C-alpha cells in the first residue's frame, strides 16, 4: 500500500466551488467551465474536484489546495475550456513551464495569466508534487473521467516526500503549522489582496480624458447645428423682406 501523509489542518485550505472526497487519494480533478461532473469524479475516488474559470486567482486557489495535501500526485484537467480565459491551457503551461519573474505563466494564452499571490516556490512545489497532468480538456464524458481517475489510483506512487505546504494567498509560504514570521494566519481562510490604487488612478485619468473628448465633440456639433439654424432664420427673413417690399410698393401705387 502506498505511503500517505496528513494534509494540512482544515484541508482544503482555500475556499471555492468544489466537492471533497478521500483526502488520501492521489488524484485531483479540475472540471474547468463544466458543472455536474464533480460528483462522478469523487465517486471514482478523487480527493477533490471542482470547476476553475479564471487563469489567475482561480488557478492560485487550485495550487494552494493541491500543495497543502501531499497525497495528491495526479491532476486531471477536463470539462469545457473557458473561452477568453483559456484556463485549461494555462494549467498545462504552468505545469510545464512555471512562471516568470513577473509572475506570468510562461507560454499561457489566457487573458491575464498572472500569479500575483503564489510565487516561484509554491509553483515549483506544485510541479514537483504532480507526477502527471492528464489533459482531457473539452471532454464531459463522465465514464471516461471516472476511468481516468481509477487508472491514476492504480499507479499511486504514494505521498510526496515533502509535507503539506500552506500559503495564505499573499505569497507567504511555509510548512504546515509553521509560523510565517509575519503575524499569524488562519488555515483555510484566504486573505484578500490589496487593491491596485495606481492602476485605478490611471484608469480614472483615462476615463476623464475620454469624457473630455466626447464633451468637446458634442459641443462642436451643437455649435455647428446652432449656426446652421441661425443662418436659415436670417435667410428666411431676408427672403420675406425682398418679397414684401415690391408688394407694398405695388399696393401703395
Automatic annotation (TrEMBL):
<dbReference type="InterPro" id="IPR030688">
    <property type="entry name" value="MeTrfase_MtrA/MtxA"/>
</dbReference>
<comment type="subunit">
    <text>The complex is composed of 8 subunits; MtrA, MtrB, MtrC, MtrD, MtrE, MtrF, MtrG and MtrH.</text>
</comment>
<comment type="similarity">
    <text>Belongs to the MtrA family.</text>
</comment>
<keyword id="KW-1133">Transmembrane helix</keyword>
<dbReference type="GO" id="GO:0050897">
    <property type="term" value="F:cobalt ion binding"/>
</dbReference>
<dbReference type="Pfam" id="PF04208">
    <property type="entry name" value="MtrA"/>
</dbReference>
<feature type="transmembrane region" description="Helical">
    <location>
        <begin position="231"/>
        <end position="249"/>
    </location>
</feature>
<protein>
    <recommendedName>
        <fullName>Tetrahydromethanopterin S-methyltransferase subunit A</fullName>
        <ecNumber>7.2.1.4</ecNumber>
    </recommendedName>
</protein>
<comment type="function">
    <text>Part of a complex that catalyzes the formation of methyl-coenzyme M and tetrahydromethanopterin from coenzyme M and methyl-tetrahydromethanopterin. This is an energy-conserving, sodium-ion translocating step.</text>
</comment>
<dbReference type="GO" id="GO:0030269">
    <property type="term" value="F:tetrahydromethanopterin S-methyltransferase activity"/>
</dbReference>
<dbReference type="InterPro" id="IPR013347">
    <property type="entry name" value="MeTrfase_F_su"/>
</dbReference>
<keyword id="KW-0472">Membrane</keyword>
<dbReference type="InterPro" id="IPR005778">
    <property type="entry name" value="MtrA"/>
</dbReference>
<feature type="domain" description="Tetrahydromethanopterin S-methyltransferase F subunit">
    <location>
        <begin position="188"/>
        <end position="249"/>
    </location>
</feature>
<keyword id="KW-0554">One-carbon metabolism</keyword>
<keyword id="KW-0489">Methyltransferase</keyword>
<dbReference type="GO" id="GO:0032259">
    <property type="term" value="P:methylation"/>
</dbReference>
<comment type="pathway">
    <text>One-carbon metabolism; methanogenesis from CO(2); methyl-coenzyme M from 5,10-methylene-5,6,7,8-tetrahydromethanopterin: step 2/2.</text>
</comment>
<keyword id="KW-0808">Transferase</keyword>
<keyword id="KW-0484">Methanogenesis</keyword>
<feature type="binding site">
    <location>
        <position position="85"/>
    </location>
    <ligand>
        <name>5-hydroxybenzimidazolylcob(I)amide</name>
    </ligand>
</feature>
<keyword id="KW-1278">Translocase</keyword>
<keyword id="KW-0170">Cobalt</keyword>
<dbReference type="GO" id="GO:0019386">
    <property type="term" value="P:methanogenesis, from carbon dioxide"/>
</dbReference>
<dbReference type="GO" id="GO:0006730">
    <property type="term" value="P:one-carbon metabolic process"/>
</dbReference>
<keyword id="KW-0812">Transmembrane</keyword>
<keyword id="KW-1003">Cell membrane</keyword>
<dbReference type="Pfam" id="PF09472">
    <property type="entry name" value="MtrF"/>
</dbReference>
<dbReference type="GO" id="GO:0005886">
    <property type="term" value="C:plasma membrane"/>
</dbReference>
Amino acid at each position: 500500500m502506498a505511503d500517505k501523509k496528513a494534509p494540512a489542518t482544515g484541508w482544503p485550505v482555500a475556499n471555492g466551488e468544489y466537492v471533497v472526497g478521500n483526502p488520501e487519494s492521489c488524484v485531483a480533478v479540475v472540471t474547468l467551465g463544466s458543472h455536474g461532473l464533480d460528483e462522478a469524479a469523487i465517486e471514482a475516488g478523487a480527493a477533490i474536484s471542482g470547476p476553475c474559470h479564471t487563469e489567475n486567482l482561480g488557478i492560485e486557489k487550485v495550487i494552494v489546495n493541491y500543495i497543502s495535501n501531499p497525497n495528491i500526485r495526479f491532476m486531471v484537467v477536463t470539462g469545457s475550456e473557458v473561452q477568453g480565459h483559456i484556463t485549461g491551457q494555462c494549467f498545462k503551461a504552468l505545469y510545464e513551464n512555471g512562471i516568470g519573474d513577473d509572475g506570468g505563466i510562461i507560454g499561457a494564452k489566457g487573458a491575464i495569466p498572472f500569479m500575483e499571490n503564489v510565487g516561484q516556490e509554491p509553483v515549483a512545489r506544485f510541479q514537483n508534487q504532480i507526477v502527471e497532468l492528464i489533459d482531457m480538456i473539452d471532454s464531459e464524458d463522465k465514464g471516461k473521467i471516472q476511468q481516468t481517475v481509477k487508472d491514476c489510483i492504480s499507479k499511486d506512487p504514494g505521498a510526496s516526500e515533502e509535507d503539506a505546504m500552506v500559503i495564505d494567498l499573499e505569497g507567504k509560504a511555509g510548512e504546515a503549522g509553521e509560523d510565517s514570521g509575519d503575524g499569524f494566519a488562519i488555515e483555510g481562510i484566504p486573505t484578500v489582496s490589496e487593491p491596485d490604487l495606481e492602476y485605478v488612478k490611471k484608469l480614472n485619468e483615462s476615463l476623464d480624458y475620454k469624457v473630455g473628448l466626447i464633451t468637446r465633440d458634442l459641443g462642436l456639433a451643437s455649435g455647428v447645428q446652432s449656426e446652421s439654424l441661425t443662418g436659415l432664420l436670417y435667410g428666411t427673413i431676408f427672403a420675406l423682406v425682398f418679397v414684401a417690399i415690391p408688394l407694398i410698393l405695388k399696393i401703395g401705387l
